[in-house]
Write a structure and sequence with these properties.
By secondary structure, the protein is mostly helical. It is built from two helices and no strands. Helix 1 crosses helix 2. The longest helix has 19 residues. The protein is elongated. The two termini are 27 Å apart.
Length: 61
């Protein structure tokens, strides 16, 4: 398998999140989904609850 560049490795997880969000929030209008995407991205920098660590895989940061 070919090695992916750093920029590709950074974009793929974001694209996967967008696809997942689109499945979870099945709006007909893509612009609405984009709003949800921006809100979720902003929330990703929010302080984490100790309960969030329950869902992390062992050894992940």
């Amino acid at each position: 398998m070919a090695k992916l560049s750093n920029s590709t490795n950074e974009i793929l997880p974001e694209f996967r999140k967008f696809i997942l969000e689109k499945k979870l929030v099945p709006d007909k209008n893509v612009e609405t989904t984009m709003i949800y995407t921006h809100v979720l991205r902003d929330m990703s920098n929010a302080p984490k609850s100790p309960l969030d660590s329950l869902y992390e895989k062992p050894g992940s940061p």
